[in-house]
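Sequence in, structure out. Go.
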Amino acid sequence: MNDKSAFIPASRRSDAQQAPSQQAEDTFTSVEEVAVVEGLVAVVGCDGTGKSTLTRDLVARLQQQRPTAWRYLGLVSGESGDKIKKLPLIGTWLERRLAAKTAKVQNLHTRRPSWLAVLVMYGFSKWRARNLEKVCRLAESGVLVIADRYPQAQTEGFRFDGPGIGINRVPQGWKRRMAEREHRVYQQLEKIQPSLIIRLDIDLDTAYARKPDHDAEELKEKISVMSQLNYNGARIIDLDARAAYDDVIAGALEAIQRFAPVEHNKGRLR
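Output:
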């Protein structure tokens, strides 16, 4: 993927102004076109909503009915931090130090990032674009893909799965140009829509009780931002993450059966 074109899956391509069913011919299209990827379902929400648990459990259940795979569409997962913690002697210290540095760079309220941080963040965003392209191709093959997180261009900040550099916090010059280029990457990515986004809602008290090692103010901000994201008009189903887990997973399964039915797989697998 580059800054001027985005991979548009063949399953469903349409101009933003046209009816969703009208097909385009080219596999690679301009940013003006929107694609809905049949068979791609994303689960989003603040930390503490149980995204990782839910996505894994959904895959385990749905695999009994149809080809299903789990994919992570964020940048650095909590599982990565857990692996670092398990390193002998320095694991816990190293994980905390890396987490603190990462949070400082990602916080758009802090001072402008260094040139190295700008390059790293831009590289991460391009990696995310390539990762989404691979996920789209997997869904195109007839596999139902359950994704943990999904990129968006509405709000800046890696913690919200948006652009990380931040156009407004860097001065004019090459840093600003890199921030603008990164923002265009996310504008392209949000033109590729999953067939369904399941958004897990939660309140601050519950989120903090589940994630006491997280900063309460950061959780509060993320809850507020996540509730306002529209993912460029994608289909969103909201579920209350405070409800009994059996009710949450039942609601998610019902939504998937409705908006990503098993017929998606038929006729695609050889």
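Check: The radius of gyration is 19 Å. Residues 39 and 144 are 5 Å apart (CA to CA).
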